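Is this the right way to post structure tokens for a design question? Let me know if I should format differently. Anyway, here goes:
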């Protein structure tokens, strides 16, 4: 194998493989075209999950909110509707006792033959937490998450009954618990607070980020890995990044679509037709960071666009990657080069975007990674599709 050099060299930090994540939507209502409904559409869910499987996605997130469908029940349904996709169950520790969550997750893992993943949400809003009776401070919530993780793992591996007395949980003689399909279940957490980094670096299998500029993500990944190393871990948490790509046949058409989308999203949130737009400064650090990036500028790096985050006042993962499928694939590879091995891409035109990503974006990224594996060198997609790097940015 020829040794690569210069721009052809694959960065030492690059993830050699990537898994793609989507989010399973439960009906056709979107931020672009809201439909007044709080219900599930089983036919739509079946079609959506099949589109993810046909498109080559590897995992799908089942989100959780106080007014949403139950993530455990949805994850079980997705596990049976698909043959390969791994359901990621979003869980707030205030909503379920950890030994019960351990049983639920292990049951899902056995039903799906080892495909279960759990994403723990400590809670970024006091108001949202209070809707389900959780009045702990943010610091206390992260302390509870740390204890929750310890109990989950013990519940899966202990072969004799055990007891626990901690700051947040107490029980006697539990178990042995119901085991997962094969040993354990990956645990993911996210967040931008110091507590999130500490718990993620020391205990999580996966640490998740929203889409941020490359330089900022790089420093965040280094921080997580440094905490993991300092804790004595021999492994490192996998890095998960999330984007909302907007693609079209040319970069110019994609940017025109992006500006149209941002205007429509802003109108939707102003009207409250999809979800109420949060007012004032968000409490969670991730949203604060997203809004700060948006205030500084709209376009970063090759394709990262922040106006969509501003339109929602930083609500959830909302930064976009804009361009042709080639430009967006190149932008995703930029993050893979920093160490991201889990890439979540979900669109604003939810089902149609998922289909398009599977047809046009995922194959390009996987083709590049196969080329790297075979040759030890980068391919041409990043060099040939510069996006905003080729200009002074987009208006």
């Amino acid at each position: 194998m020829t040794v690569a050099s210069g721009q052809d060299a694959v960065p030492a930090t690059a993830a050699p493989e990537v898994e793609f994540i989507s989010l399973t939507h439960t009906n056709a209502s979107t931020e672009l075209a809201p439909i007044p409904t709080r219900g599930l559409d089983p036919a739509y869910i079946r079609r959506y999950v099949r589109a993810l499987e046909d498109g080559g996605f590897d995992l799908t997130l089942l989100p959780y909110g106080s007014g949403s469908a139950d993530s455990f029940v949805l994850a079980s349904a997705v596990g049976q509707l698909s043959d390969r996709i791994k359901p990621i169950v979003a869980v707030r520790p205030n909503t379920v006792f950890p030994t019960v969550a351990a049983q639920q997750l292990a049951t899902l893992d056995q039903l799906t033959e080892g495909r279960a993943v759990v994403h723990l949400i400590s809670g970024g809003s006091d108001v949202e937490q209070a809707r389900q009776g959780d009045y702990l401070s943010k610091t206390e919530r992260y302390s509870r998450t740390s204890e929750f993780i310890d109990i989950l793992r013990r519940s899966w591996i202990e072969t004799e009954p055990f007891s626990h007395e901690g700051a947040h949980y107490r029980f006697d003689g539990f178990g042995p618990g119901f085991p997962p399909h094969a040993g354990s279940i990956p645990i993911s957490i996210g967040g931008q607070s110091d507590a999130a980094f500490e718990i993620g670096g020391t205990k999580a299998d996966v640490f998740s980020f929203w889409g941020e500029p490359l330089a900022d993500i790089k420093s965040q990944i280094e921080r997580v890995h440094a905490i993991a190393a300092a804790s004595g871990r021999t492994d490192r948490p996998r890095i998960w990044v999330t984007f909302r790509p907007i693609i079209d046949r040319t970069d110019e058409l994609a940017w025109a679509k992006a500006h149209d989308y941002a205007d429509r999203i802003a109108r939707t949130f102003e009207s409250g037709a999809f979800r109420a737009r949060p007012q004032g400064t968000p409490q969670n650090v991730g949203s604060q960071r997203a809004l700060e990036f948006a205030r500084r500028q709209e376009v970063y790096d090759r394709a990262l666009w922040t106006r969509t985050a501003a339109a929602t006042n930083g609500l959830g993962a909302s930064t976009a990657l804009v361009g042709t499928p080639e430009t967006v694939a190149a932008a995703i590879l930029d993050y893979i080069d920093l160490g991201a091995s889990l890439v979540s891409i979900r669109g604003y035109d939810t089902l149609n975007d998922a289909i398009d990503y599977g047809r046009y974006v995922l194959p390009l990224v996987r083709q590049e990674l196969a080329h790297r594996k075979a040759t030890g060198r980068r391919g041409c997609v990043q060099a040939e599709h510069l996006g905003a790097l080729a200009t002074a940015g987009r208006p």
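Format looks fine. Someone answered above. Worth noting: The two ends are 44 Å apart (CA to CA). The chain has one domain: 8-243+323-377.
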